[in-house]
Design brief:
With 501 residues, this protein is an all-alpha fold. Helices cover 68% and strands 1% of the residues. The chain has a two-stranded antiparallel ribbon with strand order 1-2. The relative contact order is 0.21. The model has no long low-confidence stretch (mean pLDDT 82).
Length: 501
């Protein structure tokens, strides 16, 4: 049993020609819209304000630039892989082809943190805006049904004590469940089961709405900026990770969650009409558009409102209130844009996760049920329903801050491995046709790894501890099921005339 046995690129290309289970219906516009749909959401409408209030102040702009650089480096590596290996599976498949099965499993298990928990995180933010919007209309949902039943505060002095991090610090909020968050996850699950074309069309409409709203907020807000809110631009440090340049780094790691949409584009490679041409367009195009928007919104947001007032579920709405009574008409429009924007993020995240499961199941690392495709809708319906069910439970039970940090560290780890994979494959398989080549890979790939690891370093110890526990659980599943059913391992054993173990 070779735990680092790689899946051959030739075998992956054969799968592309023979696997017609998923419907190829997405062009470059749809793929770019999927990326924007996933990137522009909780990052702008929720996490920007919270990260500014807790970690970076107005210097949240620098945090977005740092995270954007890391994403640009990783995005170039993703673009090469997605054009070279246009199959479902994203970083999991890329890792399988370059670094071997065990690393691929670690990435695939890690991507569950990225996609499934991201959908749950954004659903919590969606709930906050919906509740606020309905309240403006005179419809009040009881608070016990609009938030998580528990919040978590890291116990003082816990450090790396994993037992204390998991068992202490939980505070009852008095709530029962976050029902709106569960409802939106259920609706999106149903839409994704029905079909990829319908899902993409729904996403395109929502992306148009939220871009219009964001541009309106930036355009109007520029005239109301109070420069005193930017002084000091980098607030003096108050403690570990709170303000100062260490706070800027901590915020960059936290809001990195906001950038994961371009990775979600790669999970739809097997449903792209011309993946080798269109995947790099979708990945890099969506990343470029969204980085500019993030920087613009964070500047306007912290210029209109003092950063100390932004630790709320709906910071953009707070900024609109600060503009004065004459612009109150903009408040419901922004909230509608936020609701629409967060809906598309949930859609794309929940589109990505079942396709990771699909790829892992096709390789034998997960049970066959995860690769079942609906005969009529041609979607991985079983994996989609399972993803939706778990995401509903997580969204109903856990607070957004805890979920967001878990997503960020999982995403950064996956990105670091993809950047390393591009570098390795240039030496192990230099002859492979690469429709898109990462420029200056000898510099871009190592820098991508270092930037991602640097941002991971800035995250709190309790987030690291939870990642380690999550990975340990994944390795148990791999060694008890995955390695025993791996098709690559079985094929290698048959080729060597030895028994599959």
């Amino acid at each position: 049993m070779n735990l680092f046995r790689r899946k051959k690129i030739a075998d992956l290309h054969s799968e592309i020609l023979t696997d017609h289970g998923l419907k190829r219906a997405l062009g470059p516009v749809n793929l770019t819209a999927l990326g924007i749909g996933a990137i522009i959401g909780a990052g702008i409408f929720v996490l920007t304000g919270q990260a500014a209030a807790k970690y970076a102040g107005p210097a949240i702009v620098y945090s977005f630039i740092l995270a954007g650089i890391a994403c640009a480096l990783a995005g170039l590596c993703y673009a090469e892989f997605s054009a070279m290996i246009p199959v479902s599976g994203s970083a999991y498949t890329y890792g399988y082809a370059t670094l071997g099965e065990l690393i691929a499993w670690i990435i695939g298990w890690d991507l569950i943190l990225e996609y499934l928990f991201a959908a749950s995180t954004v659903a919590v933010g969606w709930s906050g805006y919906v509740v606020s919007f309905l309240k403006d209309l005179g419809i009040v949902i009881p608070p016990e049904f609009t938030s998580a039943p528990y919040n978590h505060v890291t116990p003082e002095g816990a450090g790396w004590n994993i037992w204390r991090l998991f068992t202490e610090g939980w505070v009852s909020t008095g709530a029962v469940l976050n029902v709106p968050a569960m409802v939106i996850v259920g609706f999106v699950t149903l839409l994704l089961v029905i079909g990829i074309t319908e899902s993409a069309t729904f996403n395109n409409v929502i992306v148009a709405i939220k871009l219009t709203v964001i541009l309106a907020f930036v355009g109007i807000g520029l005239a109301y900026i109070n420069r005193e809110n930017w002084d000091p631009f980098v607030p003096p440090a108050l403690g570990a990770g709170q303000f100062g340049w260490e706070g800027v780094l901590r915020a960059a790691g936290v809001i990195f969650f906001a950038y994961i949409g371009f990775d979600a584009v790669s999970t739809a490679a097997q449903e792209a009409r011309n993946a080798q041409r269109d995947m790099p367009i979708g990945i890099l195009g969506s990343l470029a558009v969204c980085t500019v928007l993030y920087i613009a919104v964070s500047l306007v947001l912290t210029g209109v409102v003092n950063y100390k007032e932004l630790n709320v579920p709906d910071p953009i709405a707070v900024a609109i209130n600060a503009l004065g009574d004459g612009l109150k008409w903009l408040r419901p429009i922004v909230k509608i844009g936020a609701i629409a924007g967060l809906s598309s993020v949930i859609l794309v995240m929940m589109l990505g996760q079942p396709r990771i499961f699909y790829a892992m199941s096709k390789d034998g690392l997960l049970p066959p049920v995860f690769s079942q495709v609906h005969q009529r809708f041609r979607t991985p319906w079983a994996a989609t329903v399972l993803t939706g069910s778990v995401a509903m439970a997580v969204a109903g039970l856990f607070p957004i801050g805890l979920l967001g940090e878990l997503v960020s560290i999982g995403t950064l780890l996956a990105f670091a491995i993809v950047c390393a994979g591009v570098f390795v494959l240039r030496f192990t398989d230099p002859q492979i046709h690469r429709p898109f080549r990462t420029p200056a890979f000898w510099l871009v790939s190592p820098l991508g790894v270092l930037f991602c690891l640097w941002l991971m370093y800035g995250l709190p110890p309790d987030t690291w501890a939870r990642l380690l526990v999550w990975m340990a659980l994944g390795l148990v599943i791999y060694f008890f099921y995955g390695r025993r059913h791996s098709k690559v391992q079985r094929q290698a054993a048959e080729n060597s005339n030895g028994p599959a173990r």
